[in-house]
Amino acid sequence: MADSKTLSIRHVTTYSYDEPVSYALQQLRLTPRATAGQVVRDWSCTIRGGTKQLSFTDSYRNMVELVLLADGVTEVEIECAGVVDVEDRNGVVGKLRGFAPLWLYLEETALTAAGNNIGQLVARLKQNCADMDEVSLLHVLSAEILGLVKYEIGQTDASTTAEGAMTVGHGVCQDHAHIMISAARQLGMPARYVSGYLLMDGQTQQDASHAWCEVWTKGLGWIGFDVSNGICPDARYVRVGVGRDYADAAPIRGLRQGNGAENLHVSLQVQQ
């Protein structure tokens, strides 16, 4: 019988501004949906300092909520909480395709465009792993990336490209996902970005959500790879948003009028 877990999640994001905000909109992709090996028992998002305007399902089948900040607000709090049952499927999500065609996940984006470093990595794989099946090749690729780009906070940010992270040789889960997506696409395999949550061993309190990637294989469909931890997602992972890169699946994106400084604080608890 496959391992399964029931995970309780509480995710609070607080934005504070040093000047009152006259107008701002935020897109939230913070609601997980039922998918292979994942059942959402309960989930809610509460906004303080703004109001939900509408919700819709985007082209990647993400649940999106549009929030309008209250006029003159100086602090906004977004609290999401719920319970999700997750089954360990060795990272295999399967052949669910959603609305977006597979060829879309072969297209480069600004964050995943391959440069010389990623091109050299792909060339080595093609030469040294020509006889491997797709899944074995992807495991080798994941390990190669982690060896070349060490996990280190503070070296990159949300705008760092896959090639940029390869160049500096340091990055976080977002960077690892972007590099693997870029390399997989160069190998002719559709790949996508996943944002979500991870139950960390011995650590309930976290300061950020997690990210990994999924690659399409002919035999098994979509398979997840968490390069940062060197494994395929198991029963500790909750999938929330997917897309071609971080920009498509970011938990919160927005626009704001005004020049005042913005401060962000995240409190995240994931426990069994």
Plain-language structure description:
The chain is of the alpha+beta class and 272 residues long. Helices cover 19% and strands 44% of the residues. The protein is built from five helices and 16 strands. The strands form four sheets. A five-stranded antiparallel beta sheet has the order 3-6-1-16-11, with no helix packed on it. A hairpin with a 3-residue loop joins strand 12 and strand 13. Helix 1 packs across helix 4 and helix 2 crosses helix 4. The radius of gyration is 19 Å and the shape is globular. The model has no long low-confidence stretch (mean pLDDT 94).
Compile the SSE list and pairings.
Layout: E1 4-21, E2 23-31, E3 38-48, E4 50-57, E5 63-69, E6 73-87, E7 92-94, H1 116-128, H2 134-148, E8 150-151, H3 162-168, E9 170-171, H4 173-186, E10 191-198, E11 205-206, E12 210-217, E13 221-225, E14 237-243, H5 246-249, E15 252-257, E16 262-271
Parallel strand pairs: 8-9
Antiparallel strand pairs: 1-6, 1-16, 2-5, 2-15, 3-6, 4-5, 7-13, 10-12, 10-14, 11-16, 12-13
Helix pairs in contact: 1-4, 2-4, 3-4
